[in-house]
Known about the structure:
The protein is mostly helical and 127 residues long. It has five helices and no strands. The longest helix has 37 residues, at 49-85.
Amino acid sequence: MNKKQLTHMEKRLLEERARVMKELGYYDESFNATLQSSDGDLSSYSFHMADQGTDAMEREKQFLMASKEGRYLWHVNQALRRLYGAPEKFGRCETCGNEIGFERLDALPHARLCISCKEKEEDAARR
């Protein structure tokens, strides 16, 4: 990758990192909200079991989404470490050593495998 492409990838990764951090901040705020403020009732006592179930389901969905974002943040941070640690190796497949297409990296800036190696990895995981 040339210097211009590396600069572009750094910018993309930092933008993705900022977006994920903002999302995680939203989830943190919603987790810290009390039950009273989450459903708008003046009392923290739900009058119906269905309301309690709905509240629990919504909290579980938020937790799963925050967990997914946290894993994505880890991948973005790993890509930034690779970029800063060895910029000459960034954009190379970790399995075969071939260059990962710039279009793929632009779409998925934390990619560490070329398309063919990623397909092999996914095929092996399915079996």
